[in-house]
Amino acid sequence: MGTVVSFDVRGGEPGAVRSALEEAVAGLHRVDEVFSTYRDGSQLSRLARGELTVAECDPEVAEVLALGAEAERLSGGWFSTRYAGRLDPTGIVKGWAVERAARRLVASGAGGVSVNGGGDVQMYGAPGPHRPWRVGVSDPLRPGGLAAVVTAAGATELAVATSGAAERGAHIVDPRTGRSAVTDLVAVTVVAPRLTWADCWATAAFAMGSREGLAWLESLPDTEALLITAGDEVRCTGGLAALLG
Length: 245
Fold this sequence. Notes:
Layout: E1 5-10, H1 14-35, H2 43-48, H3 59-74, E2 82-83, E3 86-87, H4 90-107, E4 112-117, E5 120-125, E6 134-138, E7 146-151, E8 157-164, E9 173-174, E10 179-180, E11 185-192, H5 195-208, H6 210-219, E12 224-229, E13 234-236
Antiparallel strand pairs: 1-4, 2-3, 4-5, 5-8, 6-7, 8-11, 9-10, 11-12, 12-13
Helix pairs in contact: 1-4, 4-5, 5-6
């Protein structure tokens, strides 16, 4: 998927955890094979060219497309599974795949799981007694610095996802125009139970801009966010402070 995925797994029976980790890694490689937009022979590429139907693809393709349609509906069209008129669910696949990999490890009996896919993190449980998972949020305007630290204290599952222009440039598209989103934001970080949705919501809110994006994020259940503008303004949803530390 063009990024690095790292695993931090605590507790559980070593053999079972090791087996689950191997399955999780193999699953991520399989996702890359199926959903790659760069491989002409991937199921997604063949589906986009009309060579396959959804029913002829792996079941995960229908699952991801259904999730993408739901994200598009809930965001009022600001999230899309199409790019330049072509089927491209890239914006949802990574978060979904990382979350799925983390769930595999939880099912193996691990007491604490943190999976980081290119800076977007899915966490379950805790790394130790009275010690929660913590995730630093990079400051897009001060390389090497942190804008905030999110804590998963008291949560059995928590995800943190960031969308912005600092790392990859203007890669987020406005679905209404098909061109790069014109926005006053440089980064949006979303905190929610599931990385599938946190990743989608960060992308959609970035395209909306700070004013509309913040209002929309406030309306979503179990969702908090940190938005940073090009003018170095920091805007947060009302409940974010309780997740910082």
